[in-house]
Hints:
- By secondary structure, the chain is of the alpha+beta class.
- It is about 25% helix and about 25% strand.
- The strands form three sheets. Strands 3, 9, 10, 11, 12 and 13 form a six-stranded antiparallel β-sheet that branches. Strands 4-5-14-8-6-7 form a six-stranded mixed β-sheet, with helices on both faces.
- Strand 4 (about 160-165) and strand 5 form a beta hairpin.
- Helix 2 packs across helix 4 (about 120-145).
- The longest helix is centred in the middle third of the chain and has 30 residues, at about 120-145.
Amino acid sequence: MANFADVVWNAAQYKLPEIMQRPEFKHKPSTTLMTLKQGGAMLVPASERERVWNVKTSDSQTVEISTLNKQSTSAVTVRNHAASGNNNDGTKTTLSFVTRGRTFKNSVKQGDKSVFSLAEALAVQLRSAAIDLHGTLETYFLGLLNTNKTQVAVSLTPKSGSWDATNYLFQIANANKDRAFQKVRGFMREQYYQGELSAIVDEYFMQEAEHLIQQGQGNSTNLGWQFNGLNLGVTEELTTDAGYNGMGYVFPSGTVGFIDWIPSKNREGFGNTFQLGGRYRSMPDPLGSGLVFAVHELAAGADNSATYGESQDIDIVYEITIDVAFLKAPMSTSNLSPIVKFGLLES
């Protein structure tokens, strides 16, 4: 039942300890969110992120970033006394922020009739909103990985597997499933990417990875080496395409991320919950992501005698929000992206 109706004072009640309530508040892993948050910190230095927070003063404003392109040069076979060449160019990328959030309400008198105090109930509501907001962001960012995956490969016939030039997908033969992540690393080398890679995979691929990693520990078949330099995470949001057993996305670590933002009134604190316009404040993410959410609280008189409060009561509506702007390393070649989608074929 809704509106705390099950915990009002209509019988002697006992509050279970926190550990017994944990199953109720289980939630999907926010792997995509956390991986891109780390990537954002590498893509945009702290000083620049702070500048964005200060320069962007309203919800509707965008932010632009500029990068230099790889120089186009001309080949020579002899030394010239008056060589010619081309000037370099740069790329300007506009970051568009979107707002994602959750709302809920409580009553100032609900704690008078409940086994739980208002503070206890509010803490649970805030955590619930954070869980739901994490889920929203996880789905949003995973969709952006798919939208922004590369449509260009160095070769249409890579040595590591097959390139699906229609669906823009690196395919790994089922016969190579024990070396799937070696194939992924090999394909990225064929795209000229060096260094550490980050991969976000579905549950099938994660279970395969866990099994293969253990093969390198006290087992004559050592397959764990193929995970060196590969930061691997699992998301339960990723839907596997038809014809594939497993699926994922891979990109050079630190080349894909996002910038987050909340309005200045929330950062500074403004207003009063029980006055016109309500109160603007902020709160750290209770799930420990390091994000800071904008909070708006607005009070209004209400008759809650039929639910959890009193006929003379006050409802407080809470809105928890954050603005995010997706960011991937800009590339001057059309439809080229550092994000590669890959899949293990069923057969």
